[in-house]
Write a structure and sequence with these properties.
Shape: globular
CATH architecture of one domain: Beta Barrel
Strand order of the largest sheet: 1-2-3-4
Number of helices: 3
Radius of gyration: 24 Å
Distance between the termini: 20 Å
């Protein structure tokens, strides 16, 4: 199955998409008429046709990737970008992964990266980011974390910029600004700027040198003036839309909490509070505070789900509790020991040693008896892990593919890496059929 965002990319579906827009118009125009029932039935049939067509498209692309891998003696060929380029992977001299760029039109490898590099981002406008490990460091919780250096290259592996960055994120739903990069940016005159920089898909700097910033989401971003206690909300053209005066504090963190809902989330680390603001032009109004917020729970990608909820962890003395809040910061569901964001209408909950899924009303819809871990639903499939095996299940909890696995990973790029009970390690597609028999890890 293909996600909603991916369906629009299916080239065979143009007519269906236009028809759906038409019927959406019918819904708004005739919402009180008898014609709504027929429009709903017609729309449902069109959606089913879309899903069927996208399944066929996905299957054909997977076959194409398999054939390329076999033809080019690669262990794996990833998702095809811009209907032409893909990342390939094979084992190096010491079984380390070696990445390459594959031209699917000419059916050849056009560039192979040294073993210390790996592909890290999608291919956009014939360019992609590659990452090189620069060692590691001890994280705040005592765990070991690996650090990376990111370089923007073209399809021949040639650097597009003179600068490398320690962190790169991709913007969402923004036409002009594609990436947020952190590090030293070397300008044309040899002037070096340190901080956060906004780049377009070709690596051209759009806005540079911020002391702190978030990726663009729905055309907006948050940036901080160093040590000033001011946070500016900018549009993608660099125009200041609103200003948040949070006072002079040691350090703040912030996140785009559903810019499509005209909301922003700002964490005051000094006071250990999470505040949610709405905005309209120059007027900014604080809507709610979440006190005793667990700092490590703040994510730059955190946003309000389709259900209008987001989760946050707060601490009560030595104990942590997780709640779901609405977009104004009011508690709606919880407390739980652990929770995941909503995916496809349900959220994974871990409470009192038990895993289960809930809907947006907080009602338990599926219990995962004896599970020791589980993943979110993606395209109607969830991975559940038990003591000695793993399984994939559908919405009803029914076991898919008529078998269990010794080990399994979640689906990525249409395939999942599994180890059968007999020890055989390979990929399967979303129907459980073996693909990419060499089984290189991705």
């Amino acid at each position: 199955m293909t996600s909603e965002g991916e369906k629009a990319k299916c080239p065979v579906l143009t007519g269906f998409v236009n028809e759906i827009h038409f019927y959406d118009g019918v819904f708004s125009t005739y919402c009180k008429s008898q014609e709504i029932a027929q429009a709903k039935r017609t729309k449902r049939l069109i959606v089913l046709e879309m899903e069927k067509a996208c399944e066929i498209t996905d299957h054909l692309q997977l076959l194409r990737r398999q054939n390329l891998a076999a033809e080019l003696n690669l262990d794996y060929v990833g998702e095809i970008y811009e209907e032409r380029y893909a990342f390939g992977q094979a084992k190096g001299k010491y079984s380390e992964p070696v990445y390459s760029i594959v031209d699917t039109e000419s059916r050849r490898i056009i560039h192979q990266f040294p073993p210390e590099f790996r592909g890290s981002k999608p291919i956009i406008n014939g360019k992609t980011w590659i990452a090189k490990s620069t060692g590691g460091y001890e994280d705040s919780d005592g765990s070991y974390a690996q650090s990376w250096s990111y370089t923007l290259v073209d399809m021949m592996g040639e650097p597009v910029l003179k600068s490398d960055f320690s962190h790169v994120e991709q913007s969402e739903a923004c036409e002009r600004v594609t990436y947020l990069a952190f590090g030293r940016l070397l300008g044309e005159q040899g002037v070096e700027q340190y901080g956060y920089h906004y780049l377009d898909a070709d690596g051209v700097p759009m806005h540079t040198g911020y002391s702190n910033a978030t990726p663009f989401s729905h055309g907006y971003t948050l940036r901080e003036v160093r040590n000033g206690g001011l946070i500016f909300l900018d549009d993608e053209y660099g125009k200041v839309v609103s200003t948040f005066d949070i006072g002079k504090i040691d350090r703040i963190e912030y996140s785009a909490l559903g810019f499509n809902s005209k909301l922003a989330m700002i964490m005051n680390v000094t006071r250990n509070e999470l505040s949610i603001y709405d905005f309209s032009g120059k007027k900014v109004k604080r809507t709610a505070r979440i006190k005793n917020f667990a700092q490590e729970n703040l994510s730059p990608r955190k946003s309000v789900s389709d259900e209008g909820l987001f989760f946050a962890t707060v601490f009560r003395g030595e104990n942590y509790e997780t709640y779901f809040f609405d977009k104004f910061g009011h508690k709606k569901l919880g407390p739980f020991d652990m929770a995941h964001d909503f995916h496809e209408g349900v959220a994974l909950i871990h409470n009192w040693g038990r895993y289960y899924f809930i809907n947006s009303a907080g009602k338990e819809v599926l219990s995962l008896i004896s599970a020791i871990d589980a993943g979110d639903y993606h395209n109607g499939i969830a991975l559940v892990k038990y003591n000695k095996f793993s399984r994939f299940i559908d919405w009803t909890g029914h076991i898919l593919f008529d078998r269990s696995f010794k080990e399994a990973a979640e689906f990525k790029e249409g395939v999942a890496l599994v180890t059968e009970l007999n020890g055989l390690k390979h990929y399967i597609d979303q129907k459980g059929k073996a693909v990419f028999e060499k089984g290189a890890e991705i």
